[in-house]
Amino acid sequence: MAWPEPGGDFGPWLPQVERNYCDAAREISRRQGLIIACRDSGHRKHIEGLLSGAADMARVIFVEFPYNDCWVRDTAPITVLSDGQPLLLDFQFNGWGGKHDCALDAQLAQNLIATGIFDGAAQEKVPMVLEGGSIEVDGRGTLLTSKRCLLNVNRNPSMTRDDIEAALTQRFGLSRVLWLDFGHVEGDDTDSHIDTLARFCSPDTIAYTACDDPEDSHYIECGLMRDQLTEFATADGKPYTLVPLPMPKAIHDEDGLRLPAGYANFLIINGAVLVPVYDDPADAVALQRLAGCFPDRDIVPIDCRPLIHQYGSLHCATMQFPQALSIAALRKP
Known about the structure:
The protein has helices at about 15-30, 40-50, 95-100, 110-115, 145-150, 160-170, 220-230, 280-295, 325-330, and strands spanning about 35-40, 60-65, 80, 85-90, 120-130, 135, 140-145, 175-180, 200, 205-210, 240-245, 265-270, 270-275, 300-305. By secondary structure, the chain is an alpha/beta fold. The protein has one domain (about 10-330): L-arginine/glycine Amidinotransferase, Chain A (5-stranded Propeller), CATH 3.75.10.10. The longest helix is centred in the N-terminal third of the chain and has 16 residues, at about 15-30. The radius of gyration is 19 Å and the shape is globular. The two termini are about 20 Å apart. Keywords: Hydrolase. Pfam families: PAD_porph.
């Protein structure tokens, strides 16, 4: 996690956002190691004070370097296994298609690696723009993504669909790519990241954002996405089990613009799934349905109403690393 700070975009809601981060940090650190990026030693002391008595501080390690934003899902390195060993892939980042200042975030992966946190693990710079929130994999060679993001000219204008698919296949060891033509959550400024739309809960189960209200602006688009998901099949030709996640009632910012509240941005950690909630009746439905998808994990609700003011949630705010990397980090003095 990269902790928000007063000078960042979360400034107006910082106390509430920090409570969100504390809640997530508490649940994560109780079950596994947690790396927290902060600006400097003063920022670190502030965070330590917030987490004291709540998080398992023996499992928390801090790293210090500058960053623009907190959405490390899209800026931290993506890890694959190469010949059984972790390989950190550093894709290019351009501020979600040039929408935001990203000079520091474009260097976040390298700055993180430079701290020595990964104990000399292999790394590779990849000459392609890609955000972690734009891809979803089943762990068995299938990648799910959206055309609106990966084929957008504001990412890799010189690459064709075939070029992008070939690059993904090579880097992630894929056997196939599933492309969604439809799906968009109002307020999302990522050009339809898949982690707001549809997520693998297992190799044969996909939870997706659904809308049953004909008066809602999402109704037609979500219906088209659902229809396309029903046409997809697993690698062995069977239909996917599809789990609809309802949309909460619309939440708007101070200017009346709708914020991207939804449940598909859940975070899978060791032994639990952290689920964004919004003090809405749909919360209980989403929690119940995800509990059915993850019977061997705790389902933990985290109030994410403050987080969505900057158009992201739990999955966006975090990036996981394999145990081979994180344990090495936690053993460092």
